[in-house]
Amino acid sequence: MYKMSEKPLISEKRIRERVSTLAQEIVVAYDFDILLSALTGAYMFTADLCREIARVQGPAAIQKRIAFIKASSYGDSTESSGKLQVQGLERINLQGKKVLMIDDIADTGTTLLGLLDMLKNAGAKEVRTCVLLNKQERREVNVTADFVGFEIANEFVVGYGLDYANDYRMLPEIWTLQEAN
Ligand code: 5GP
Ligand code: MG
User: In b/e form, how buried is each residue of 75-98, taking b as 16+ CB within 10 angstroms?
Assistant: First the structure.
């Protein structure tokens, strides 16, 4: 059994402020063609980040495309199954495109590394990655996200799109899940 931390790990306000500065960092550094988001965990972050990027960029954002894939490696547990499954990539034309890949969290790094490989194989000209959260301590493969919202410790987090067995996704803040005994 798990229970939520008493206070959010990251409040709505801190998320809003960081997403805004992150959008500025991205716009300055990388003129991408298509933003590719990994469902389901990154849905809320993606929606907020897109709006901030458009706010910073103005009319130049009109031609930026957005597409979604479904990436899963977790079952109903807090440990990765280690197997990456990706759906929907075959419908998206990445040939010669500069891609900004968005995911919720880099944990072992397996997902990010696997996605980078697949997007390159799909013909992308360049791929840079952006994650809302990074757990550096848990890294098992050699991969670094280009843009990171927050560095966090080795804790299991939920909310703001992130789930535990599909619960908690709608919460506007990020919470830590602790073992209840
Ligand atoms: P990785 O492949 O880097 O080990 O794991 C990446 C995926 O695992 C993320 O996209 C996310 O779905 C899931 N994940 C890793 N850590 C957490 C966490 O603390 N909370 C939640 N809800 N999902 C996590
Ligand atoms: Mg995920």
Answer: eeeeebeeebebeebeebebeebe
